[in-house]
Design brief:
The chain is of the alpha+beta class and about 425 residues long. It has helices at about 5-20, 25-30, 35-45, 50-55, 65-70, 75-85, 95-100, 110-115, 190-195, 200-205, 210-215, 230, 245-250, 260-265, 325-330, 355-360, 395-425, and strands at about 60, 90, 105-110, 125-130, 135-140, 150-155, 160-165, 220-225, 255, 270-275, 285-290, 295, 300-310, 315-320. Strands 2-1-7-6-5-4-3 form a seven-stranded mixed sheet. Strands 9-8-14-13-12-11-10 form a seven-stranded mixed sheet. A hairpin with a 3-residue loop joins strand 6 (about 150-155) and strand 7. It is elongated and about 75 Å long. Bound molecules: 2-acetamido-2-deoxy-beta-D-glucopyranose (NAG) (5 copies). It comes from Ziziphus jujuba.
Length: about 425
Protein backbone atom coordinates (compact mmCIF):
# COMPACT_ATOMS: atom_id res chain seq x y z
CA UNK A 1 0.00 0.00 0.00
CA UNK A 2 2.69 2.40 1.09
CA UNK A 3 4.40 2.13 -2.24
CA UNK A 4 1.22 3.09 -4.07
CA UNK A 5 1.11 6.61 -2.77
CA UNK A 6 4.18 7.86 -4.63
CA UNK A 7 2.81 6.11 -7.66
CA UNK A 8 -0.21 8.36 -7.55
CA UNK A 9 2.08 11.33 -7.22
CA UNK A 10 3.80 10.26 -10.43
CA UNK A 11 0.43 10.00 -12.12
CA UNK A 12 -0.41 13.49 -10.97
CA UNK A 13 2.89 14.75 -12.33
CA UNK A 14 2.23 13.12 -15.67
CA UNK A 15 -1.30 14.50 -15.71
CA UNK A 16 0.13 17.97 -15.29
CA UNK A 17 2.02 17.43 -18.54
CA UNK A 18 -0.83 15.75 -20.35
CA UNK A 19 -3.23 18.49 -19.40
CA UNK A 20 -1.36 20.72 -21.83
CA UNK A 21 -2.27 18.42 -24.70
CA UNK A 22 -5.95 18.48 -25.51
CA UNK A 23 -7.43 15.05 -26.11
CA UNK A 24 -10.08 16.43 -28.43
CA UNK A 25 -10.94 19.55 -30.36
CA UNK A 26 -14.68 20.18 -30.54
CA UNK A 27 -14.29 22.84 -33.22
CA UNK A 28 -12.50 20.45 -35.52
CA UNK A 29 -14.85 17.63 -34.65
CA UNK A 30 -18.00 19.61 -35.52
CA UNK A 31 -16.42 21.13 -38.62
CA UNK A 32 -17.20 17.87 -40.42
CA UNK A 33 -20.92 18.54 -39.93
CA UNK A 34 -22.11 21.72 -41.69
CA UNK A 35 -25.59 21.29 -40.15
CA UNK A 36 -24.07 22.32 -36.81
CA UNK A 37 -21.91 25.15 -38.10
CA UNK A 38 -23.96 27.78 -36.26
CA UNK A 39 -23.68 25.87 -33.02
CA UNK A 40 -19.95 25.44 -33.59
CA UNK A 41 -19.56 29.12 -34.33
CA UNK A 42 -21.24 30.07 -31.04
CA UNK A 43 -19.10 27.59 -29.09
CA UNK A 44 -16.07 29.47 -30.39
CA UNK A 45 -17.46 32.95 -29.79
CA UNK A 46 -18.38 32.14 -26.20
CA UNK A 47 -15.09 30.26 -25.66
CA UNK A 48 -17.06 27.25 -24.54
CA UNK A 49 -14.86 25.35 -26.99
CA UNK A 50 -11.84 25.80 -24.71
CA UNK A 51 -13.87 24.64 -21.73
CA UNK A 52 -15.05 21.54 -23.61
CA UNK A 53 -11.55 20.74 -24.87
CA UNK A 54 -10.07 21.01 -21.40
CA UNK A 55 -12.42 18.38 -20.01
CA UNK A 56 -12.70 14.67 -20.37
CA UNK A 57 -15.75 12.47 -20.12
CA UNK A 58 -18.10 14.94 -21.65
CA UNK A 59 -21.23 14.87 -23.82
CA UNK A 60 -22.18 17.75 -26.09
CA UNK A 61 -25.85 17.95 -27.07
CA UNK A 62 -26.01 19.70 -30.42
CA UNK A 63 -28.88 20.94 -32.55
CA UNK A 64 -29.02 22.09 -36.14
CA UNK A 65 -28.53 25.53 -37.62
CA UNK A 66 -32.23 26.37 -37.68
CA UNK A 67 -32.65 25.61 -33.99
CA UNK A 68 -29.44 27.47 -33.15
CA UNK A 69 -30.53 30.59 -35.03
CA UNK A 70 -33.85 30.72 -33.26
CA UNK A 71 -32.18 30.18 -29.88
CA UNK A 72 -29.61 32.88 -30.54
CA UNK A 73 -32.27 35.30 -31.75
CA UNK A 74 -31.39 38.71 -30.51
CA UNK A 75 -29.85 37.52 -27.30
CA UNK A 76 -26.47 38.83 -26.24
CA UNK A 77 -23.54 36.41 -26.19
CA UNK A 78 -23.58 36.17 -22.41
CA UNK A 79 -27.08 34.68 -22.52
CA UNK A 80 -26.26 32.38 -25.42
CA UNK A 81 -23.28 31.15 -23.44
CA UNK A 82 -25.47 30.21 -20.48
CA UNK A 83 -27.97 28.48 -22.74
CA UNK A 84 -25.29 26.48 -24.54
CA UNK A 85 -23.47 25.55 -21.35
CA UNK A 86 -26.63 23.68 -20.31
CA UNK A 87 -25.98 21.43 -23.30
CA UNK A 88 -22.55 20.33 -22.20
CA UNK A 89 -23.11 17.34 -19.93
CA UNK A 90 -20.25 16.38 -17.61
CA UNK A 91 -20.63 12.68 -18.22
CA UNK A 92 -20.26 10.35 -21.17
CA UNK A 93 -23.49 9.28 -22.87
CA UNK A 94 -23.68 7.36 -26.09
CA UNK A 95 -26.83 5.87 -27.61
CA UNK A 96 -26.40 2.67 -25.64
CA UNK A 97 -25.98 4.39 -22.29
CA UNK A 98 -29.01 6.62 -22.96
CA UNK A 99 -31.12 3.48 -23.17
CA UNK A 100 -29.64 1.96 -20.04
CA UNK A 101 -30.35 4.75 -17.57
CA UNK A 102 -31.17 3.12 -14.29
CA UNK A 103 -34.87 3.46 -13.43
CA UNK A 104 -35.23 5.21 -16.79
CA UNK A 105 -34.56 8.74 -15.55
CA UNK A 106 -31.61 10.72 -14.24
CA UNK A 107 -30.37 14.24 -13.60
CA UNK A 108 -26.98 14.98 -15.09
CA UNK A 109 -24.66 17.89 -14.26
CA UNK A 110 -23.86 20.37 -16.99
CA UNK A 111 -21.24 23.04 -17.48
CA UNK A 112 -23.85 25.63 -16.51
CA UNK A 113 -23.85 24.21 -12.99
CA UNK A 114 -20.09 24.76 -12.68
CA UNK A 115 -20.43 28.51 -13.25
CA UNK A 116 -22.01 28.91 -9.83
CA UNK A 117 -24.68 31.12 -11.43
CA UNK A 118 -27.34 28.48 -11.83
CA UNK A 119 -30.09 28.77 -9.23
CA UNK A 120 -31.26 25.56 -7.54
CA UNK A 121 -30.86 22.56 -9.79
CA UNK A 122 -31.17 24.65 -12.94
CA UNK A 123 -27.68 23.57 -13.93
CA UNK A 124 -28.79 19.96 -14.37
CA UNK A 125 -30.61 18.29 -17.23
CA UNK A 126 -33.21 15.62 -16.81
CA UNK A 127 -32.62 12.68 -19.15
CA UNK A 128 -35.55 10.29 -19.30
CA UNK A 129 -35.82 7.06 -21.25
CA UNK A 130 -39.47 7.04 -22.32
CA UNK A 131 -41.31 3.93 -23.42
CA UNK A 132 -40.70 2.79 -26.96
CA UNK A 133 -37.02 3.67 -27.06
CA UNK A 134 -37.54 7.42 -27.08
CA UNK A 135 -35.15 9.43 -24.88
CA UNK A 136 -36.13 12.94 -23.84
CA UNK A 137 -34.29 15.86 -22.31
CA UNK A 138 -35.46 18.80 -20.25
CA UNK A 139 -34.35 21.21 -17.59
CA UNK A 140 -34.18 19.68 -14.11
CA UNK A 141 -36.00 22.74 -12.75
CA UNK A 142 -39.30 21.70 -11.15
CA UNK A 143 -42.24 21.67 -13.53
CA UNK A 144 -40.13 21.70 -16.69
CA UNK A 145 -41.29 19.75 -19.71
CA UNK A 146 -39.14 17.13 -21.37
CA UNK A 147 -39.53 18.93 -24.64
CA UNK A 148 -36.35 17.95 -26.41
CA UNK A 149 -35.59 14.47 -27.67
CA UNK A 150 -32.59 12.50 -28.77
CA UNK A 151 -32.48 12.29 -32.54
CA UNK A 152 -29.12 10.74 -33.42
CA UNK A 153 -25.58 10.07 -32.48
CA UNK A 154 -23.10 12.38 -34.20
CA UNK A 155 -19.65 11.33 -33.03
CA UNK A 156 -18.04 9.38 -30.20
CA UNK A 157 -14.50 9.14 -28.90
CA UNK A 158 -15.05 6.68 -26.04
CA UNK A 159 -14.97 7.64 -23.23
CA UNK A 160 -13.65 11.12 -23.72
CA UNK A 161 -16.28 12.92 -25.71
CA UNK A 162 -19.64 12.13 -27.22
CA UNK A 163 -21.70 14.39 -29.48
CA UNK A 164 -25.42 13.68 -29.68
CA UNK A 165 -28.04 15.53 -31.67
CA UNK A 166 -31.24 16.60 -29.95
CA UNK A 167 -34.38 17.97 -31.55
CA UNK A 168 -34.44 21.37 -29.87
CA UNK A 169 -32.60 23.39 -27.24
CA UNK A 170 -33.11 22.64 -23.53
CA UNK A 171 -34.11 25.86 -21.81
CA UNK A 172 -33.97 26.42 -18.06
CA UNK A 173 -36.77 28.68 -16.79
CA UNK A 174 -35.91 32.37 -16.96
CA UNK A 175 -32.58 31.74 -18.61
CA UNK A 176 -33.41 33.60 -21.80
CA UNK A 177 -35.41 36.36 -20.18
CA UNK A 178 -33.01 37.29 -17.38
CA UNK A 179 -31.68 40.80 -17.96
CA UNK A 180 -28.20 40.63 -19.43
CA UNK A 181 -25.93 43.50 -18.52
CA UNK A 182 -24.52 45.23 -21.55
CA UNK A 183 -20.90 46.20 -21.22
CA UNK A 184 -21.69 49.89 -21.59
CA UNK A 185 -24.09 49.84 -18.62
CA UNK A 186 -21.75 48.03 -16.29
CA UNK A 187 -20.39 49.98 -13.37
CA UNK A 188 -16.90 48.51 -13.41
CA UNK A 189 -15.62 50.28 -10.31
CA UNK A 190 -18.81 49.44 -8.45
CA UNK A 191 -18.38 45.75 -9.28
CA UNK A 192 -14.74 45.87 -8.20
CA UNK A 193 -15.55 47.56 -4.91
CA UNK A 194 -18.16 44.97 -4.08
CA UNK A 195 -15.67 42.23 -4.87
CA UNK A 196 -13.16 43.56 -2.32
CA UNK A 197 -10.94 45.41 -4.79
CA UNK A 198 -11.40 49.00 -3.56
CA UNK A 199 -7.75 49.96 -3.94
CA UNK A 200 -7.62 48.74 -7.51
CA UNK A 201 -10.93 50.47 -8.29
CA UNK A 202 -9.61 53.76 -6.86
CA UNK A 203 -6.40 53.46 -8.87
CA UNK A 204 -8.12 52.85 -12.19
CA UNK A 205 -10.37 55.84 -11.52
CA UNK A 206 -7.60 58.24 -10.50
CA UNK A 207 -5.31 57.19 -13.34
CA UNK A 208 -8.01 57.37 -15.99
CA UNK A 209 -7.45 53.73 -16.95
CA UNK A 210 -11.18 53.23 -16.39
CA UNK A 211 -11.81 54.91 -19.76
CA UNK A 212 -9.61 52.38 -21.54
CA UNK A 213 -11.44 49.57 -19.79
CA UNK A 214 -14.85 50.95 -20.63
CA UNK A 215 -14.12 51.27 -24.31
CA UNK A 216 -12.46 47.83 -24.48
CA UNK A 217 -15.24 46.04 -22.58
CA UNK A 218 -17.64 45.99 -25.49
CA UNK A 219 -15.14 44.43 -27.86
CA UNK A 220 -13.66 41.99 -25.41
CA UNK A 221 -11.77 42.50 -22.17
CA UNK A 222 -10.57 40.48 -19.22
CA UNK A 223 -9.45 42.18 -16.01
CA UNK A 224 -7.37 40.57 -13.27
CA UNK A 225 -8.11 42.71 -10.23
CA UNK A 226 -5.88 42.33 -7.16
CA UNK A 227 -7.90 42.35 -3.96
CA UNK A 228 -7.23 44.90 -1.21
CA UNK A 229 -5.07 42.47 0.79
CA UNK A 230 -2.80 42.07 -2.24
CA UNK A 231 -1.85 45.76 -2.09
CA UNK A 232 -1.02 45.52 1.60
CA UNK A 233 1.03 42.37 1.26
CA UNK A 234 4.61 42.35 2.43
CA UNK A 235 7.05 42.97 -0.40
CA UNK A 236 4.69 44.96 -2.61
CA UNK A 237 6.75 47.92 -3.81
CA UNK A 238 5.67 51.42 -2.87
CA UNK A 239 3.42 52.20 -5.80
CA UNK A 240 3.28 55.90 -4.98
CA UNK A 241 6.90 56.09 -6.19
CA UNK A 242 5.80 55.22 -9.72
CA UNK A 243 5.40 57.95 -12.31
CA UNK A 244 1.92 58.42 -13.78
CA UNK A 245 2.93 56.59 -16.93
CA UNK A 246 4.29 53.69 -14.90
CA UNK A 247 1.12 53.49 -12.84
CA UNK A 248 -0.93 53.34 -16.02
CA UNK A 249 1.31 50.56 -17.37
CA UNK A 250 1.01 48.65 -14.11
CA UNK A 251 -2.79 48.86 -14.18
CA UNK A 252 -3.08 48.01 -17.86
CA UNK A 253 -0.83 45.05 -17.17
CA UNK A 254 -3.73 43.65 -15.14
CA UNK A 255 -5.93 43.20 -18.21
CA UNK A 256 -5.94 41.51 -21.56
CA UNK A 257 -7.80 42.44 -24.71
CA UNK A 258 -10.38 39.81 -25.58
CA UNK A 259 -12.67 37.58 -23.64
CA UNK A 260 -10.48 35.12 -21.74
CA UNK A 261 -12.55 33.05 -19.32
CA UNK A 262 -11.02 30.44 -17.05
CA UNK A 263 -11.37 27.56 -19.51
CA UNK A 264 -9.42 29.58 -22.05
CA UNK A 265 -6.70 30.45 -19.56
CA UNK A 266 -6.41 26.77 -18.72
CA UNK A 267 -5.73 25.94 -22.35
CA UNK A 268 -3.21 28.76 -22.80
CA UNK A 269 0.31 27.52 -23.43
CA UNK A 270 2.06 30.60 -24.83
CA UNK A 271 2.67 33.98 -23.14
CA UNK A 272 -0.29 36.32 -23.41
CA UNK A 273 -0.12 40.02 -24.20
CA UNK A 274 -1.73 42.49 -21.84
CA UNK A 275 -3.14 45.93 -22.51
CA UNK A 276 0.24 47.28 -21.35
CA UNK A 277 2.10 45.33 -24.04
CA UNK A 278 3.98 47.77 -26.23
CA UNK A 279 6.23 45.48 -28.21
CA UNK A 280 6.91 41.81 -28.74
CA UNK A 281 7.36 40.01 -25.48
CA UNK A 282 6.91 43.18 -23.40
CA UNK A 283 4.56 43.27 -20.45
CA UNK A 284 3.22 39.82 -21.05
CA UNK A 285 2.03 37.10 -18.72
CA UNK A 286 2.49 33.37 -18.70
CA UNK A 287 -0.22 31.07 -17.46
CA UNK A 288 0.01 27.70 -15.77
CA UNK A 289 -2.72 25.54 -14.39
CA UNK A 290 -3.03 22.62 -12.10
CA UNK A 291 -6.41 20.99 -12.18
CA UNK A 292 -8.92 23.77 -11.84
CA UNK A 293 -6.49 26.29 -10.42
CA UNK A 294 -4.96 28.90 -12.73
CA UNK A 295 -1.79 30.86 -11.91
CA UNK A 296 -0.51 33.97 -13.71
CA UNK A 297 3.25 34.56 -13.75
CA UNK A 298 4.95 37.86 -14.46
CA UNK A 299 8.57 36.81 -14.22
CA UNK A 300 8.84 38.66 -10.91
CA UNK A 301 5.92 37.17 -9.03
CA UNK A 302 2.82 35.15 -9.63
CA UNK A 303 -0.77 35.12 -8.57
CA UNK A 304 -3.56 32.64 -8.34
CA UNK A 305 -6.81 33.44 -10.10
CA UNK A 306 -9.22 33.70 -7.18
CA UNK A 307 -12.87 34.53 -7.86
CA UNK A 308 -14.95 35.33 -10.89
CA UNK A 309 -16.51 38.74 -10.42
CA UNK A 310 -18.11 38.88 -13.85
CA UNK A 311 -18.32 36.49 -16.75
CA UNK A 312 -20.47 38.26 -19.28
CA UNK A 313 -19.15 37.41 -22.73
CA UNK A 314 -17.16 39.29 -24.06
CA UNK A 315 -16.18 40.86 -20.73
CA UNK A 316 -14.76 39.05 -17.72
CA UNK A 317 -13.38 40.20 -14.37
CA UNK A 318 -11.45 37.97 -11.97
CA UNK A 319 -9.94 38.74 -8.61
CA UNK A 320 -6.35 37.72 -7.96
CA UNK A 321 -4.38 37.34 -4.72
CA UNK A 322 -1.27 39.35 -5.58
CA UNK A 323 -0.44 42.50 -7.48
CA UNK A 324 1.11 41.44 -10.79
CA UNK A 325 4.57 43.01 -10.94
CA UNK A 326 5.86 43.26 -14.52
CA UNK A 327 9.59 42.71 -15.01
CA UNK A 328 9.64 45.89 -17.10
CA UNK A 329 8.92 47.92 -13.95
CA UNK A 330 10.11 45.74 -11.11
CA UNK A 331 12.55 43.30 -12.63
CA UNK A 332 15.68 45.37 -11.97
CA UNK A 333 15.40 45.46 -8.23
CA UNK A 334 13.30 43.04 -6.30
CA UNK A 335 12.15 45.78 -3.97
CA UNK A 336 12.43 49.41 -5.02
CA UNK A 337 10.42 50.34 -1.96
CA UNK A 338 12.17 50.78 1.36
CA UNK A 339 10.60 47.49 2.36
CA UNK A 340 12.32 44.60 4.14
CA UNK A 341 15.90 44.68 2.95
CA UNK A 342 17.20 41.47 1.43
CA UNK A 343 20.69 40.73 2.78
CA UNK A 344 22.37 40.84 -0.60
CA UNK A 345 21.50 44.01 -2.48
CA UNK A 346 18.86 46.33 -1.13
CA UNK A 347 19.58 49.03 -3.66
CA UNK A 348 18.75 48.92 -7.34
CA UNK A 349 22.06 47.61 -8.61
CA UNK A 350 21.84 47.25 -12.33
CA UNK A 351 25.54 48.14 -12.59
CA UNK A 352 26.71 44.70 -13.59
CA UNK A 353 24.79 43.80 -16.68
CA UNK A 354 21.40 44.08 -18.25
CA UNK A 355 20.61 40.65 -16.91
CA UNK A 356 19.08 41.10 -13.46
CA UNK A 357 15.50 40.91 -14.65
CA UNK A 358 15.44 37.20 -15.37
CA UNK A 359 17.34 36.52 -12.19
CA UNK A 360 14.17 36.85 -10.21
CA UNK A 361 12.16 34.66 -12.52
CA UNK A 362 10.75 31.71 -10.62
CA UNK A 363 13.09 32.36 -7.75
CA UNK A 364 10.96 33.38 -4.81
CA UNK A 365 13.97 33.26 -2.55
CA UNK A 366 14.92 36.98 -2.25
CA UNK A 367 12.91 38.14 0.73
CA UNK A 368 11.61 41.33 -0.75
CA UNK A 369 10.80 40.01 -4.17
CA UNK A 370 7.17 39.22 -3.64
CA UNK A 371 4.75 38.02 -1.08
CA UNK A 372 5.32 34.31 -0.74
CA UNK A 373 3.60 32.99 -3.81
CA UNK A 374 0.41 31.07 -3.12
CA UNK A 375 0.99 27.38 -2.65
CA UNK A 376 -0.56 26.68 -6.00
CA UNK A 377 2.40 28.32 -7.70
CA UNK A 378 4.68 26.02 -9.64
CA UNK A 379 3.51 22.47 -9.08
CA UNK A 380 5.68 21.15 -6.31
CA UNK A 381 8.23 23.29 -4.59
CA UNK A 382 10.98 22.82 -7.09
CA UNK A 383 11.64 26.36 -8.33
CA UNK A 384 14.42 27.25 -5.95
CA UNK A 385 16.34 24.29 -7.28
CA UNK A 386 16.05 25.62 -10.79
CA UNK A 387 18.60 28.38 -10.65
CA UNK A 388 20.66 30.24 -13.20
CA UNK A 389 18.99 28.73 -16.22
CA UNK A 390 18.67 32.37 -17.18
CA UNK A 391 21.32 35.09 -17.20
CA UNK A 392 21.98 34.14 -20.81
CA UNK A 393 19.60 36.71 -22.10
CA UNK A 394 18.05 39.93 -20.98
CA UNK A 395 14.66 39.19 -22.48
CA UNK A 396 12.86 38.30 -19.34
CA UNK A 397 9.83 36.80 -21.00
CA UNK A 398 11.92 34.33 -22.92
CA UNK A 399 13.51 33.34 -19.69
CA UNK A 400 10.13 32.95 -18.07
CA UNK A 401 9.18 30.49 -20.76
CA UNK A 402 12.39 28.55 -20.54
CA UNK A 403 12.87 28.37 -16.83
CA UNK A 404 9.53 26.75 -16.19
CA UNK A 405 10.34 23.63 -18.18
CA UNK A 406 13.39 22.74 -16.07
CA UNK A 407 11.32 23.33 -12.96
CA UNK A 408 8.77 20.81 -14.16
CA UNK A 409 11.49 18.38 -15.13
CA UNK A 410 13.01 18.68 -11.72
CA UNK A 411 9.62 17.99 -10.20
CA UNK A 412 9.30 14.83 -12.25
CA UNK A 413 12.81 13.70 -11.46
CA UNK A 414 12.15 14.31 -7.78
CA UNK A 415 8.95 12.34 -7.95
CA UNK A 416 10.56 9.45 -9.79
CA UNK A 417 13.38 9.43 -7.25
CA UNK A 418 10.80 9.29 -4.46
CA UNK A 419 9.18 6.26 -6.05
CA UNK A 420 12.43 4.45 -6.57
CA UNK A 421 13.57 5.07 -3.05
CA UNK A 422 10.21 4.01 -1.63
CA UNK A 423 10.34 0.78 -3.61
CA UNK A 424 13.75 0.05 -2.19
CA UNK A 425 12.70 0.95 1.30
CA UNK A 426 9.56 -1.19 1.34
C1 LIG B 1 -8.89 10.03 -24.32
O1 LIG B 1 -8.17 10.98 -23.55
C2 LIG B 1 -6.94 10.48 -23.05
C3 LIG B 1 -6.35 11.54 -22.15
O2 LIG B 1 -6.16 12.73 -22.81
C4 LIG B 1 -6.03 10.14 -24.21
O3 LIG B 1 -4.82 9.64 -23.73
C5 LIG B 1 -6.71 9.10 -25.07
O4 LIG B 1 -5.91 8.83 -26.20
C6 LIG B 1 -8.07 9.59 -25.51
N1 LIG B 1 -8.75 8.52 -26.20
C7 LIG B 1 -8.98 8.56 -27.49
C8 LIG B 1 -9.69 7.39 -28.06
O5 LIG B 1 -8.65 9.54 -28.17
C1 LIG C 1 -9.09 23.24 -32.90
O1 LIG C 1 -9.35 23.18 -34.28
C2 LIG C 1 -9.55 24.45 -34.88
C3 LIG C 1 -10.01 24.22 -36.31
O2 LIG C 1 -9.25 23.21 -36.93
C4 LIG C 1 -8.27 25.25 -34.79
O3 LIG C 1 -8.43 26.52 -35.36
C5 LIG C 1 -7.93 25.40 -33.32
O4 LIG C 1 -6.70 26.09 -33.17
C6 LIG C 1 -7.84 24.06 -32.63
N1 LIG C 1 -7.71 24.27 -31.21
C7 LIG C 1 -6.75 23.70 -30.48
C8 LIG C 1 -6.75 23.98 -29.03
O5 LIG C 1 -5.91 22.99 -30.99
C1 LIG D 1 -37.45 13.96 -15.01
O1 LIG D 1 -38.64 14.57 -15.42
C2 LIG D 1 -39.78 13.71 -15.37
C3 LIG D 1 -40.95 14.46 -15.96
O2 LIG D 1 -41.11 15.70 -15.35
C4 LIG D 1 -40.02 13.30 -13.92
O3 LIG D 1 -41.13 12.39 -13.86
C5 LIG D 1 -38.78 12.61 -13.40
O4 LIG D 1 -38.94 12.29 -12.05
C6 LIG D 1 -37.56 13.50 -13.58
N1 LIG D 1 -36.38 12.75 -13.21
C7 LIG D 1 -35.65 13.01 -12.12
C8 LIG D 1 -34.47 12.11 -11.89
O5 LIG D 1 -35.90 13.93 -11.38
C1 LIG E 1 -20.68 52.91 -9.47
O1 LIG E 1 -20.75 52.28 -8.20
C2 LIG E 1 -20.17 53.04 -7.16
C3 LIG E 1 -20.16 52.21 -5.89
O2 LIG E 1 -21.30 51.44 -5.78
C4 LIG E 1 -20.95 54.35 -6.99
O3 LIG E 1 -20.36 55.12 -5.98
C5 LIG E 1 -20.90 55.11 -8.31
O4 LIG E 1 -21.70 56.25 -8.22
C6 LIG E 1 -21.42 54.23 -9.45
N1 LIG E 1 -21.18 54.92 -10.71
C7 LIG E 1 -22.12 55.04 -11.62
C8 LIG E 1 -21.72 55.74 -12.87
O5 LIG E 1 -23.24 54.55 -11.48
C1 LIG F 1 19.29 36.64 -26.58
O1 LIG F 1 18.40 37.45 -27.31
C2 LIG F 1 18.94 37.91 -28.53
C3 LIG F 1 17.97 38.88 -29.16
O2 LIG F 1 16.67 38.70 -28.64
C4 LIG F 1 19.25 36.72 -29.43
O3 LIG F 1 19.78 37.16 -30.65
C5 LIG F 1 20.22 35.81 -28.73
O4 LIG F 1 20.43 34.63 -29.51
C6 LIG F 1 19.70 35.41 -27.36
N1 LIG F 1 20.74 34.70 -26.66
C7 LIG F 1 20.51 33.54 -26.03
C8 LIG F 1 21.66 32.95 -25.34
O5 LIG F 1 19.40 33.02 -26.00
Amino acid sequence: MGALQPFFVVCLGLLAFNALVSAHNITELLAAFPEYSEYNNYLSQTKLDDEINSRQTITVLVFNNGAMSSLAGKHPLSVIKKALSLHVVLDYYDAQKLHQISKGTTLSTTLYQTTGNAPGNYGFVNITDLQGGKVSFGSAAPGSKLSSSYTKSVKQIPYNISVLEISEPIIAPGLLTAPAPSASDLNITGLLEKAGCKTFAALILSSGVIKTYQSAAEKGLTIFAPNDEAFKAKGVPDLTKLTNAETVSLLLYHSVAGYTPKGTLKSTTTPISTLATNGAGKYDLTVTHDGDSVVLHTGVDSSRLADTVLDATPFAIFTIDSVLLPTELFGKSPSPAPGPAPESSPSPAPVLAPSPAPASVEAPSPLGASPPAPPSDTPGGAPSDAPSAESENSTSTDAAGHVRAPALLILLVTVVATVISSIFLS
